[in-house]
Amino acid sequence: xxxxxxxxxxxxxxxxxxxxxxxxxxxxxxxxxxxxxxxxxxxxxxxxxxxxxxxxxxxxxxxxxxxxxxxxxxxxxxxxxxxxxxxxxxxxxxxxxxxxxxxxxxxxxxxxxxxxxxxxxxxxxxxxxxxxxxxxxxxxxxxxxxxxxxxxxxxxxxxxxxxxxxxxxxxxxxxxxxxxxxxxxxxxxxxxxxxxxxxxxxxxxxxxxxxxxxxxxxxxxxxxxxxxxxxxxxxxxxxxxxxxxxxxxxxxxxxxxxxxxxxxxxxxxxxxxxxxxxxxxxxxxxxxxxxxxxxxxxxxxxxxx
Length: 305
What we know:
By secondary structure, the protein is an alpha+beta fold. It is built from 7 helices and 15 strands.
């Protein structure tokens, strides 16, 4: 059963990204000057929150000082016709950023997403990922000249060699591996540095020249010594920390032999559904609250006794 992306954190974003209009600087400027347009302020990748720990939103009509202090302002999209922008207050001190935004605290986006609707979390993470990219692309990787934002902040143009760059996505695969024989079991691993009883599905980045399926087979073999077959796509999840895309699969191992690499993984073992349900009953989480691995494990549990 594939994952319903509407239930995934950072998925189901509702913004119209207006790809056919954001290349017009006059249109962007008009939206930024339009009363009612909304600003999403961040500070050094951190979310600015109100006393109830919800992300702060600022009406552009009351944001002259905030915009003047911004290191970068980018257009995110339209929400039922209302323009939404992300504003990077990283050049300011934390205290100054809080005052400018009318916020009480800065927090990691992942610390507050549990209290947000998935689509709201998607906007917050989208803003974080795009602003992070801009801070790392102020100079051209080809000639070293300064770059400037274009297309409402969705590309950067080199002032030296005219090179145009776009935000890059770093795809990774995340896999629930099933045992080849009865009883039904799935393979979970413990990563180096993780708590002694912290288990998760296996994952890894896609390398140059690989398909997603190639990456699944290579990562499972490298990290856990497992050969897999019957790969089945389960869904995907935006993971802009800073630029990831998690692509989820199920696969079946050809044998029960496991051999961890001793570096990324220090231990791996097979779990029955009964064992995982017992962990849940004891209050032990199955995967991160905001990650697609939680859904991989949840749907696998729901698929059998």
